[in-house]
Specification:
It comes from Streptomyces yokosukanensis. The chain is an alpha/beta fold. It has 15 helices and 23 strands. The protein folds into two domains: about 270 residues, Aldehyde Dehydrogenase, Chain A, domain 1; about 190 residues, Aldehyde Dehydrogenase, Chain A, domain 2. The termini are far apart.
Length: about 475
């Protein structure tokens, strides 16, 4: 993406509409530190308009009353539109947030397309109404769309997260106000264009780029029936607090500090080859990143050397260069946050094994070297707090019981993995770790299974039938005997 992108209007209810406020959002390249785009900054009055059209579209419009198959056909066209424009989407996202282009193609764009596709597969087999034999007679159980959804997405994987919320919301018959992050609003305009071309009816989707203040106004709007939020724990708590005023239903997908447990029988090169991309993915800006690597103390030096070699070989550079593996962080504040944690880790007594500062070759941009800390114990801040960047901790453990204890000794419970020569034993470890998703000898996120977290990692689930059900209300209808 080389040309500056200018959007002067907001996408409200399917139409490009002049904003009611005058503020704009400048999108800054994390690689060049130059402005690459401008979009309107939605104001509270714009939120009122978007919620109003979504409310009317839900209460009176055709979308909630369409058949499941009719909705599937429209959403399938959205999915196909994303697939057709995946390279464009990937370039826009990499330009906005610094995600390496090769990763953007696979995860940001094609990954989002896979989320839409998986939701369509769930919708095809979903049962919206069923009869049961109740205690007092026959009953009819219905599942009906929850209503107007406020979908608040972050900057790190904007299309992927938008798909996780929009796909089930639309397929169940909800209407949606999508609130992209001010760091990454440009790809949301592409999505709006694709949705309009797919034939999404009037009022069903609005896109409102805005900051936290306007987001809070949206979350607390009395016309909203459900909030689906992805972001930090602090912001999630605030979302829950504001939504509670109206008893608005809430799904929260928050942070993580996930542990990759390397068992003593693991083959070193296999484990390292699997963990490194899972730790430094998306420049470390991923809630599911494996940021605590637990290795047996008896093999600590062997694993430390292997991880240092792999991390130091990661290519850092321009996110639009297909060879880049680690790009810049999304904003100067994130760069400074990571540098502060590197300093804190050293003050706590941890040892920088590789990295530890700005890359010498990058004169501009919000870069931080892929950094690996050794001699870390789990009480250190760098092992307990989500850094959200390319800063990873290597922690030794004594026996397997201690490894599980360390993995569970966290305020988070979002992801994790185990690496072993015995898959069945790995599954046994997976059963003991209190986290919402787990991988054995791999790292993946399957869109047909439930995704979400324990503890401070959130509430509710996304993906699969479980995530689909988050956008439905359950109704019981009592029937007369013999019906």
């Amino acid at each position: 993406m080389t040309e500056r992108v200018e959007h002067g209007q907001l996408f409200i209810g399917g139409e490009l509409t002049d904003p009611l406020g005058k503020d704009v959002i400048e999108v800054i390249s994390p690689h060049t530190e130059e402005v690459i785009g401008r979009v309107p900054h939605a104001c509270p009055q714009d939120v009122d308009r978007a919620v109003d059209v979504a409310r009317r579209a839900f209460d009176e419009g055709p979308w909630p009353r369409a058949t499941p198959q009719e909705r599937i056909e429209v959403v399938t066209r959205i999915k196909d539109g994303i697939a057709a424009r995946h390279e464009e989407i990937a370039r826009v996202i990499s330009s906005q947030n610094g995600s390496p282009y090769s990763w953007s193609v696979l995860a940001q764009a094609l990954g989002a397309m896979m989320v839409w596709d998986a939701a369509i597969r769930v919708a095809r087999d979903f049962t919206y109404e069923e009869r049961r034999d109740g205690v007092l007679g026959p009953i009819l159980v219905r599942r009906e769309p929850v209503g107007v959804v406020a979908a608040v997405v972050p900057w790190n994987v904007p299309q992927f997260v938008a798909a996780a919320k929009l796909a089930p919301a639309l397929l169940t018959g909800c209407t949606v106000v999508l609130k992209p992050s001010p760091e990454s609003p440009l790809d949301a305009y592409l999505l709006a264009e694709i949705a309009r071309e797919a034939g999404l009816p009037e009022g069903v989707l609005s896109v409102l780029p805005a900051d936290r203040e306007v987001s809070e106004y949206l979350v607390g709007h009395p016309g909203v029936d459900k909030v689906s939020f992805t972001g930090s724990v602090a912001a999630g708590r605030r979302v829950m607090e504001v939504a509670a005023r109206n008893l608005t239903r809430v799904t929260l997908e928050l942070g993580g500090k996930s542990a990759a447990v390397v068992l003593p029988d693991a083959e070193v090169h296999t484990a390292v080859a699997g963990i490194v991309p899972a730790a430094w993915m998306n420049n470390g800006q991923a809630c599911v990143a494996q940021t605590r690597i637990l290795v047996p103390r008896a093999r600590y030096d062997e694993f430390a050397d292997a991880f240092v070699q792999a991390a130091s070989a990661l290519k850092v550079g321009d996110p639009l260069d297909p060879a880049t593996q680690v790009g810049p962080l999304v904003a100067r504040r994130q760069q400074q946050r990571n540098l502060d944690y590197i300093r804190i880790g050293q003050e706590e007594g941890a040892k920088v094994l590789t990295g530890g500062g700005r890359p010498d070759a990058q004169e501009r941009g919000w870069y931080v070297e892929p950094t690996l800390f050794g001699d870390v114990h789990n009480a250190m801040r760098i092992a307990r707090e989500e850094i959200f960047g390319p800063v990873i901790c290597l922690l030794p453990y004594g026996d397997e019981q201690e490894a599980v204890k360390i993995a569970n000794d966290s305020d988070y419970g979002l992801s994790g993995s185990v690496w072993t020569a015995d898959v069945e034993h790995g599954i046994d470890i997976a059963r003991q770790v209190r986290t919402g998703t787990y991988s054995v000898n791999t790292f993946s996120l399957d869109m047909l299974g439930p995704f979400g977290g324990y503890k401070n990692s959130g509430l509710g689930r996304e993906f699969g039938p479980e995530g689909y059900g988050e956008y439905l209300e359950h109704k019981m209808i009592h029937l007369p005997a013999g019906a």
